[in-house]
Amino acid sequence: MEYEITGGSFPTVVCTLNKGETMKDETGAMAFMTSNIKMETNTGGGLLKGLGRALSGDTIFLNFFTAQADNQRIAFSSCYPGKIIPIRLTGSNTIIGERNAFLAAEEGVDIDIYFKKNLGVGLFSGEGFILQKFTGQGMLFIEIDGEVIEHDLAPGEKLLINEGHIAAMEETVDFDIEMVKGVKNMIFGGEGLFFTRVTGPGKVWIQTMPIRKLADAIIPYMPTKE
Question: Which CATH number is associated with domain 2-218?
Fold first, then answer.
């Protein structure tokens, strides 16, 4: 499988498949495909697996697209302005993504739910208790809100990240919460009471405009019913 990401702030990943190669996506992400691609919809591992994905922000069903001839093209589009990030899974690396991160992947990539074990992290990190977990082998494409900053953390290196800005990270990264220091900072700083603290080793993908912040910025300009 070969791919190209295009579209700027409204990105699309266009994949070229040879005969027998399969891509899967969350339902509704496919933008176009050539005629010699067969589509099948199923839960991708049973009803419980599908329900687990639904809890992590995706759909119960997945669409599977298999090329019936060489040089077939299929495109998957992001549902909001941002970036599509390609990540290669090798069987030995695991990626943890925010809710709704999954866009599309090769057939060998497994999508599951990931529970935060720390109650405080689930309550105060802004990411919720349930995330998405990606394992297996193949190319994975995830959606990022706004632009993306990739940060490689050395062992023991720490980074404080504001609510909603973590898009994805390698499973080797440890994450917890840290209270904002200083009462005045808490009350007047506008950054909330907690930061998410991530500790290396591992890579973190940080998004610059979480979709919730974009929605909050637009709401004051929306017309109201009289």
Answer: 3.60.160.10
